[in-house]
């Protein structure tokens, strides 16, 4: 647990709480090498980090009526440029051309379906995937439901999402939450909120790794656009696969995919972010009361625990649906692979993702 202790001690002046260890998984086919007492530190799985800005200090009256904080918030208008309206087509997928090549995931209908815009009535669990039952269709947002399941049916881990916390927020910004369902549901739970204005009381972000070039700059901008006592919540996944019992080997295609994908992300200038570093960055920027929690998302329904098994079904369904989308641009543009080579390798990765004897999860 040395990593956790180091984080807490280096940020002690900013009231940083060490993240609690998540409970270990127990597999229904656990090998003899599995350690049932193993726990996980802050780098594993989904990491949810919340922080707040210290209360404001009443400023001394100045002649010009300005304050240092007011000067740090700059309003700007953004015009729609030609690059936003143009598209890049490659290997049968469509990508946006804004800052061409920096964001490697497609923006076509197949990607929308992966993010959750699929028409399903209800799910039953088979041995390999989620299956839709017949009935009246509803919209299922796969990734959003994975977060809800992880957070015990809460929309986040920051105080505005905790029932009975009596925290009221009026201006809320979501970043990277996908289809928009998070903002709609948060608005339903908090009718006092406004759709958009500046500065904000609460900024909620999801899965921005490999989308941001400079995390300190990004977190500083969040800080500059929050009110005193405002909240920032980061929900991030380290995309390197992890394993507690040795069933995931360095020779597995899952490990090789993460290595190649990470190298491509570095090339694009949007590297994978080490979640352990985010707590320190937030403290350096000026946030206080920083709390990190970790959650595991199994690669398939290998755990014995009911909740984690359900997460495994959802995670497998979501990951397999987007596998080629994750790989196609990074592998063809950076590593020089052909579309056919990516497709064959994706089949190998997919087979490992559904193998219940490989007890992996995003690390």
Automatic annotation (TrEMBL):
Residues covered by region (Disordered): 1-47, 56-75
Q: Where does the record place Polar residues bias?
A: 35-47
Write down a Pfam family by its short name.
Methyltransf_23
Q: Name one GO molecular function term.
A: methyltransferase activity
Q: Which InterPro entries match?
A: SAM-dependent_MTases_sf
User: Where along the sequence do coiled-coil regions lie?
Assistant: none
Residue ranges with Low complexity bias: 14-31
Q: Which domain of life is it from?
A: Eukaryota
Q: Which family does it belong to?
A: Belongs to the methyltransferase superfamily. LaeA methyltransferase family.
This one is known as Secondary metabolism regulator LAE1
Q: Give the species.
A: Colletotrichum shisoi
> Which taxonomic lineage does the organism of this UniProt entry have?
Eukaryota, Fungi, Dikarya, Ascomycota, Pezizomycotina
């Amino acid at each position: 647990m040395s990593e956790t202790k180091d984080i807490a001690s280096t940020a002690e002046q900013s009231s940083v709480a060490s993240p609690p260890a998540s409970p270990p998984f127990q597999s229904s086919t656990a090998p003899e090498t599995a350690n049932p007492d193993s726990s996980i530190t802050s780098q594993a799985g989904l990491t949810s980090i919340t922080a707040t800005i210290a209360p404001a200090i009443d400023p001394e009256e100045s002649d010009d009526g300005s304050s240092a904080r007011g000067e740090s918030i700059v309003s700007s208008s953004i015009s729609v440029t030609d690059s936003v309206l143009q598209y890049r087509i490659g290997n049968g997928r469509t990508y946006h051309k804004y800052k061409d090549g920096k964001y490697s995931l497609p923006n076509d209908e197949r990607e929308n379906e992966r993010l959750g815009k699929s028409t399903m009535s209800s799910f039953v669990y088979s041995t390999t995937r989620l299956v839709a039952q017949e009935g009246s269709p509803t919209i299922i947002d796969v990734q959003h439901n994975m977060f809800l399941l992880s957070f015990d049916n809460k929309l986040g881990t920051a105080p505005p999402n905790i029932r009975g916390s009596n925290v009221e927020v009026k201006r809320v910004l979501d970043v990277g939450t996908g289809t928009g369902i998070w903002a709609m549901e948060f608005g339903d739970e908090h009718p006092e909120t406004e759709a958009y204005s500046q500065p904000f009381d609460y900024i909620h972000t999801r899965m921005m790794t490999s989308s941001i070039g400079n995390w300190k700059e990004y977190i500083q901008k969040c800080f500059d656009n929050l009110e005193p006592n405002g909240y920032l919540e980061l929900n991030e996944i380290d995309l390197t696969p992890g394993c507690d019992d040795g069933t995931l080997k360095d020779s597995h295609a899952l490990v090789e995919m993460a290595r190649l994908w990470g190298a491509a992300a570095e090339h694009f200038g949007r590297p994978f972010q080490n979640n352990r570093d985010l707590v320190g960055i937030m403290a350096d920027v000026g946030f206080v009361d920083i709390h990190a929690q970790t959650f595991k998302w199994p690669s398939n329904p290998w755990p014995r625990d009911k909740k984690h098994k359900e997460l495994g079904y959802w995670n497998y369904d979501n990951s397999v649906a987007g596998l080629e989308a994750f790989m196609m641009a990074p592998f063809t543009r950076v590593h020089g692979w052909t579309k056919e080579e990516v497709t064959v390798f994706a089949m190998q990765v997919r087979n490992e993702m559904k193998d219940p004897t490989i007890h992996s999860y995003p690390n």
